[in-house]
From TrEMBL:
Enzyme Commission (EC) number: 3.1.1.3
Organism in which the protein naturally occurs: Pseudomicrostroma glucosiphilum
Signal peptide: 1-20
Protein family membership: Belongs to the AB hydrolase superfamily. Lipase family.
Catalysis: reaction(s): a triacylglycerol + H2O = a diacylglycerol + a fatty acid + H(+)
Subcellular location: Secreted
Name of the protein described by the UniProt record: triacylglycerol lipase
Annotated InterPro entries: AB_hydrolase_fold, Lipase_secreted
One term under GO cellular component: extracellular region
Phylogenetic placement of the source organism: Eukaryota, Fungi, Dikarya, Basidiomycota, Ustilaginomycotina
GO molecular function terms noted in the UniProt entry: triacylglycerol lipase activity
GO terms, biological process: lipid catabolic process
Keyword Coiled coil: no
Amino acid sequence: MLSLPFLLCTALAFAASALALAVPRAVSGFPDPVVDPFYSQPSNIASYSLGQIIDTRATVSTFASPSLEKSYQIKFRSQNAQKQPIAAVTTVLVPTKKTLSSSGQASMLSFQNFQDSVTLSCSPSWAYVANSGSPAALAANLEAPIVNGWALDQGYYVSIPDHEGPSSSFISGTNAGHIVLDGIRAALTSEGLSTKTQIGMYGYSGGANAGVFASSLAPSYAKELNVVGVSLGGTPVSPQDTFYQLNGGFASGLAGAGAVGIASAYPDVQQYLDTHINAKGKPVIAGLKSDGTCVGQVVAEYGFINFFDLITPNQDFLLVAPARKALAKETLLQTQASYTVPVPKHPRFIYHALTDELVPFNSSQLYIQEQCAGGADIRSIVYPVGEHITTEILGIPSALAFLGSAFAGTLGSVACGTIIPDTPLGSAASVKVLGSARDSALQKAKSDGSWNL
């Protein structure tokens, strides 16, 4: 029996292809990021400080509503996994009403989209320009209108980083964490907001990988930021474990994209793949990296591939020295890491399905155990039944309830690892958090896979 994620991603792939035929590939002033000079790397990038603004431009947003005053993109300085300077992009949403905390501080949500692909044309910033023709627009605008619409209604600013960066380094959490945090810095500067501004983060799946690394890096890399809460669901804390679960299955394209993404962040891994990729593998890798191959196509067109067969000699290339070294830096499991994994003290909410077919449940639970042993503040929900995508839908009310309480300063304290009550769709509590329209939209998404708000 085909799973809902496979059917949804297949539908997204066909719909994206139809959209590409029906809509011009570039709205005026916003061409494909592959050729758009706004995404280019300045020759003097090293002269900028982390988070410093390089350029800005206004956009017409897919999140248009009475709660949105304006939207725009910021190009800013960050650094990649090798700590080399890069220019990255974030999309900023400014609320019409600006809510202040009891201490007089503004609030900002950093929303990490699950880009899950390895081409710049799938960048969230392009997908969130109205009528851009982005091949990622459908997938990028599934849960995003729910979460970001909620944030704007609350009076929170929003930053949506292109967390894979200019090299599209999918699943390199170190790279992504830097970009998320520097994107927040740039957004705060642009809006004239204090570093005391309350920062929350949201991410699911590939977006949660970026979010969990940003959370982990924040106390050292961006210690000036006031992080009050981080919500993470279906979180890949170990690229190695996730690759093994995906490889050869219906969503094996995500494993291949992950290998390509890690290689783009680690030159030694790239050199190994370039040297050992065989004739069978070259068109697969080229296809994954081709313009317009976004998450729907990655899953629908590159399923049931054993990526170890694309290397000569055929072998588990995660075990070769360059990959082992990179993966030991790109895991948040202390049992796999070559460094001391940080234990941030800000509150976190982590949810996962026991039966998640894409991202390993056991790895996520081990992460919680290791973090709690170090004194973390984590509360969680385990969904006993649910696929990866259905669990995202189920978890949104609880995730936003958590973030709302974090911004309001009403979370309270719990023992680390505490399983908290779910906020079920259709309940009075869910409607109170989301509003009736968003709650109904998520119920419909759970029922038939449609996400129309």
